[in-house]
């Protein structure tokens, strides 16, 4: 029976089985053998000349592709590259009992059933987004998320490192970013901007540049690419609390302590580009090779640009007709800075609607796949990120038992049924959809326990679609089986039948539920996707 999740291209049972012992040897090219060993840490596998596991390289396979054959004489892995070897190791891991997902084992050997697997991913971008700005997630938890991503063959971790409510990276060039912008005195406990209630508890935290270097290296070893996001020019309250001179008005700001869209915006003038260039240099210096940098571009309130005589004069000097064009120009300028450093820019869809992007800029259509299709038709690579069904800050059920969420409902089945590149699109539009990514916005995710609940098992469905192209008809059965692995890993996922008693109240859901229906929200967003302006 196939128990692998995500579903492999081909899996067939073979006669015989193999007894795989703790401390068994892995032979083959060191880089590939190490990748297999990393996928099965508790087995304490050793490098050796002849191995219970023999790994070979086959350049004819894609970098992420592999073949895995288990027979009575041992395990044979053929991989197209290091990533393929790592994923073969992950599939081999799933052929072993759930106990091998624990951090320590009391058994010396396990029987691996005879099997042949041939496998490669459908999508190159298999992403998860963490909003560490609204609520900070300590480094140890980010490393744990990376482990879980590796186990599900997910390979892009998008870190939303700044928003109105906090800046989350050390800066030696601009130290007030981590000294001032990384914390707030209190946090709103509801969504009503007119009548906020507050918890009175300080919140904050940031990653040092050494932390970021560690996160990136840890991720790389698990075939996960870190995609840092510096979300500009909007969502700027935290940056402006530290450096108000970078704003469009010079007025003072505080790190925002409530939710919703703020009018705080960076000035588009050259000092802001110089500031962001210095920040990018620090980030890229810490992260090492960084193929993608997200520069945001969403939910910009452009009124302060419109009202400023200096910005208007600058816009006119550039020959731009309106502030919308200036928005697009500013992001293109930053994308050029990144291109000089070997990184490709990624933006939210408002930046595409603003116009004037570099052709190689990648677009994340969060306001629906309609705007995603337009970006693909215009030649951009697209990463499917629509609110429905990929915003995992929405509850999984319309139930007062669910912990408070921004809205409801997005179920495991909704995610498993998602078609990132619909068959009704033109072939060249579909080809430009490089993958998909789930978003974990954290206004309502205060800590790692709630993060687990929101992320899993929906991210299992994400992994299935991202790797296999579409969920298999046996997906729910494999998922039920897979939850035993998550139990062994200690993941506090949402049970398929609903929350456990202690998962119901974090954070508290008020009796009157001010949540949005996910489909209605997406509908509203789809209509606003012709505009760069926020609709809220
Ligand atoms: C977004 O949800 N503002 C990208």
From TrEMBL:
<protein>
    <recommendedName>
        <fullName>beta-N-acetylhexosaminidase</fullName>
        <ecNumber>3.2.1.52</ecNumber>
    </recommendedName>
</protein>
<keyword id="KW-0326">Glycosidase</keyword>
<dbReference type="InterPro" id="IPR029018">
    <property type="entry name" value="Hex-like_dom2"/>
</dbReference>
<comment type="similarity">
    <text>Belongs to the glycosyl hydrolase 20 family.</text>
</comment>
<dbReference type="GO" id="GO:0005975">
    <property type="term" value="P:carbohydrate metabolic process"/>
</dbReference>
<dbReference type="InterPro" id="IPR015882">
    <property type="entry name" value="HEX_bac_N"/>
</dbReference>
<dbReference type="GO" id="GO:0016020">
    <property type="term" value="C:membrane"/>
</dbReference>
<feature type="domain" description="Glycoside hydrolase family 20 catalytic">
    <location>
        <begin position="123"/>
        <end position="469"/>
    </location>
</feature>
<dbReference type="InterPro" id="IPR025705">
    <property type="entry name" value="Beta_hexosaminidase_sua/sub"/>
</dbReference>
<dbReference type="InterPro" id="IPR017853">
    <property type="entry name" value="GH"/>
</dbReference>
<feature type="domain" description="Beta-hexosaminidase bacterial type N-terminal">
    <location>
        <begin position="4"/>
        <end position="119"/>
    </location>
</feature>
<dbReference type="InterPro" id="IPR015883">
    <property type="entry name" value="Glyco_hydro_20_cat"/>
</dbReference>
<dbReference type="Pfam" id="PF02838">
    <property type="entry name" value="Glyco_hydro_20b"/>
</dbReference>
<dbReference type="Pfam" id="PF00728">
    <property type="entry name" value="Glyco_hydro_20"/>
</dbReference>
<keyword id="KW-0378">Hydrolase</keyword>
<dbReference type="GO" id="GO:0004563">
    <property type="term" value="F:beta-N-acetylhexosaminidase activity"/>
</dbReference>
<dbReference type="GO" id="GO:0030203">
    <property type="term" value="P:glycosaminoglycan metabolic process"/>
</dbReference>
<feature type="active site" description="Proton donor">
    <location>
        <position position="299"/>
    </location>
</feature>
């Amino acid at each position: 029976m196939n128990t692998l999740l995500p579903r492999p291209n081909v899996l067939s049972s073979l006669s015989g089985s193999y007894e795989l012992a703790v401390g068994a040897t892995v032979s083959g090219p060191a880089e590939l053998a190490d990748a297999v060993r990393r996928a099965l840490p508790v087995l304490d596998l050793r490098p050796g000349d002849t191995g219970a596991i023999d790994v070979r390289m086959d350049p004819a396979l894609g970098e992420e592709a592999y073949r895995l054959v288990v027979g009575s004489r041992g395990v044979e892995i053929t991989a197209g590259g290091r990533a393929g070897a790592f994923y073969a190791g992950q599939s081999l891991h799933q052929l072993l009992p759930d106990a091998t997902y624990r951090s320590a084992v009391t058994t010396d050997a396990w029987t691996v059933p005879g099997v042949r697997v041939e496998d490669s991913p459908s999508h190159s971008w298999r992403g998860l987004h963490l909003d560490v700005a609204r609520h900070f997630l300590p480094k140890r938890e980010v490393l744990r998320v990376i482990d879980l991503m590796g186990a599900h063959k997910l390979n892009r971790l998008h870190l939303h490192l700044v928003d109105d409510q906090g800046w989350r990276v050390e800066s030696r060039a601009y130290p007030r970013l981590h000294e001032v912008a990384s914390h707030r005195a209190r946090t709103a406990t509801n969504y009503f901007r007119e009548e906020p209630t507050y918890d009175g508890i300080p919140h904050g935290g940031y990653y040092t540049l050494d932390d970021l270097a560690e996160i990136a290296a840890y991720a790389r070893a698990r075939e996960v690419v870190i995609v840092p996001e510096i979300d500009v020019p909007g969502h700027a309250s935290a940056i402006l609390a530290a450096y108000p001179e970078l704003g469009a008005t010079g007025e003072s700001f505080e790190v925002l302590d409530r939710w919703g869209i703020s009018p705080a915006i960076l000035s588009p003038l050259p000092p802001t580009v110089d500031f962001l260039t210095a920040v990018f240099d620090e980030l890229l210096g810490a992260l090492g090779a960084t193929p993608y940098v997200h520069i945001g571009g969403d939910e910009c309130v452009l009124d302060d640009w419109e009202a400023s005589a200096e910005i208007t004069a600058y816009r006119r000097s550039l020959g731009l007709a309106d502030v919308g064009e200036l928005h697009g120009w500013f992001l293109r300028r930053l994308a050029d800075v990144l291109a000089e450093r070997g990184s490709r820019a990624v933006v939210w869809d408002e930046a595409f609607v603003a116009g004037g992007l570099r052709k190689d800029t990648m677009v994340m259509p969060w306001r629906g796949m309609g705007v995603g299709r337009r970006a693909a038709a215009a030649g951009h690579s697209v990463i499917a990120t629509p609110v429905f069904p990929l915003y995992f800050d929405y509850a999984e059920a319309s139930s007062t038992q669910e912990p408070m969420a921004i809205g409801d409902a997005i179920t495991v089945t909704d995610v498993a049924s998602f078609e990132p590149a619909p068959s009704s699109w033109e072939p060249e539009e579909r080809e430009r959809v490089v993958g998909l990514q789930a978003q974990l916005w954290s206004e309502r995710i205060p800590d790692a326990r709630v993060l687990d609940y929101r992320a899993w098992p929906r991210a299992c469905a994400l992994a299935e679609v991202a790797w296999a192209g579409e969920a298999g008809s046996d997906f729910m059965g494999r998922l039920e089986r897979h939850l035993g692995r998550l139990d062994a890993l200690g993941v506090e996922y949402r049970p398929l039948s609903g929350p456990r008693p202690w998962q119901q109240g974090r954070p508290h859901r008020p009796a009157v539920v001010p949540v949005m229906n996910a489909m209605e929200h997406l509908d509203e967003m789809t209509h606003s996707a012709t505009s760069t302006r926020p609709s809220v």
